[in-house]
Amino acid sequence: MSTPFHRSEALLERALKVIPLGSQTFSKSLTQFPYGVSPYFIQRGEGCWVWDVDGNRMLDMIGSLAAVTLGHGDPDVNIAVRRQLEEGVLFSLPHPIETEVAEAIVRMVPCAEMVRFGKNGSDATAGAIRIARAATGRDLVAVCGYHGWQDWYIGATARHRGVPQATRALTHTFGFNDIASLERLLQADPGGYAAVMLEPMNVIHPEPGFLEAVRDLAHAHGALFIFDETITGFRFARGGAQEWFGVTPDLATFGKGLANGFPLSAVAGRADLMKLMEEIFFSFTFGGETLSLAAARATLDKLEREPVLETIHRQGSRIMAHVDGLIDHLVARDIVGISGHPSWSFLVFSDTAGTDVWTLKTLYMQEMLARGVLTFGTHNVGYRHDDEALQVLFAAYDEVLPMLVEAVRQRRVETLLRCKPLVPLFKVR
Question: What pLDDT does residue 429 have?
Fold first, then answer.
């Protein structure tokens, strides 16, 4: 079984001549999708389905890297954006919609007393760190998770080329569910840390008391406690993971779930801290661009009006239960598992005798893509993932997972590949 991606490959060859990697985003590039068995360009989307440039209809389990929560082409969002387009996109003074969306976030998010907007999650996380440094007069930052492309964070990863060593030395990582690792950092430089930032959840659940312990430890050392809710915000709950877990940070950053695919991010938090935005420089020509704000207002209105998150959680729980049951049936927990939150779950592969995680993931992607499922191992569930979509996903899993397990047991994973194995970009979670 295979799906032709000839036009995608031709367009990739063309794009590579003028665009590094042929894509604006690492996670949408050939670094994440094995050549020869993958599409590289999507032409259009509707609900939870997309059509690539070769005309293949595919079930979208990536959801534009979890940025599309309501589904592609949501009618309420589209109507709101079209209406705003008639008034204008960008003005020489603020538009009232800036205040309206900020008020909605303050109403929904526990920590939010004031709000400022950016365009990407990286804008928001960098802004939050600048606030923390201004508030504390300190330079060091402790992080856990992925927080964007800017120097202050990416310098602490393997993708630090081009980041000055002086900048790299200011950010240090600690382990999720490992409070001792954070304690070691803070004790090694007393009075040096401005902030502790983490994703409140990603692949695994926080252990009972972990988030509270991070908060208390940060505060005991005079550092701000910051949640990066770029993914969890408006997905785990209407008020984000902080509402879901009942732990309120000093500041929080939002992005992907805010505007159903339109470019908008936000920093929100305590008013006394957010007022520092009047002194630090956090300013964008397009920060008040109205189409994205109109999309955000429509998205947030829909989250409050309709059972969006209840539907996402129900369907996501069904996905996790189906995959988990299949793994049990195959007695394959040494090979693969599933973890995460119903709205954002992960298929987790293990190194095994005869193969490694990345080779196994490549075979998984090859076979899922061949069955019309666009995925790289996560289930970024949206409002439009209905029962028909889940049946397509389950049918693919019912064929692919037994094949993967058998291939591992017989040590012939590589012989089934029709492409080169992927290599890791960098480990962030």
Answer: 60
Q: What is the pLDDT of residue 279?
A: 95
294: in domain: yes
The angle formed by the CA atoms of residues 361, 364 and 368, to the nearest 5 degrees, is: 140
> 398-422 burial by CB neighbour count: b if 16+ within 10 A, else e?
eebbeebbebbeeeebeeebeeebb
User: Does residue 50 share a domain with residue 93?
Assistant: no
Per-residue model confidence (pLDDT) at position 426: 65
pTM to 2 decimal places? 0.95
- Give CA–CA dist 327/364, Å, rounded: 14
- Please name the amino acid found at residue 60: D
- Would you state the pLDDT for residue 310? 98
Cα–Cα distance for residue pair 220/83, rounded to 1 Å: 49
pLDDT at residue 425, as a whole number:
72
Judge whether 426 lies within some domain.
no
Query: Are the beta carbons of 56 and 372 closer than 8 angstroms?
Result: yes
Instruction: Identify the CA nearest to 299 among candidates 251, 263, 271, 268.
Output: 263
Write out the DSSP string of 64-95. HHHT-SS-BT-HHHHHHHHHHHHH-S--SS--
Low-confidence residues of the chain: pLDDT under 70: 1-3, 426-429
**Within the chain, what is the greatest distance between any pair of CA atoms?**
66
Query: Tens digits of per-residue pLDDT, 222-255?
Result: 999 999 999 999 999 999 999 999 999 999 999 9
Q: How far apart are CA 111 and CA 8, in angstroms?
A: 44
Q: How far apart are CA 79 and CA 269, in angstroms?
A: 30
How many other C-beta atoms lie within 10 A of the C-beta of residue 145?
21
Q: Residue 337 carries which side chain, given as an amino acid letter?
A: G
- Residue found by looking up tokens 């305590």 in the block: 270
Please choose, from the candidates 50, 19, 218, 26, the residue with its C-alpha nearest in 3D space to the C-alpha of residue 135.
Answer: 218
Please name the helix (run of DSSP H) or strand (run of DSSP E) that holds residue 266, with its range, or none. Answer: strand 265-269
Domain range for 189 is 75-305
Q: Which of 289, 283, 291, 275 is nearest to 123 (CA)?
A: 283
For residues 223 and 129, is the Cβ–Cβ distance under 8 A? Answer: no
Whether residue 180 sits in one domain with residue 46: no
Taking each helix axis from N to C terminus, what angle separates 357-370 and 387-409, rounded to the nearest 10 degrees?
140
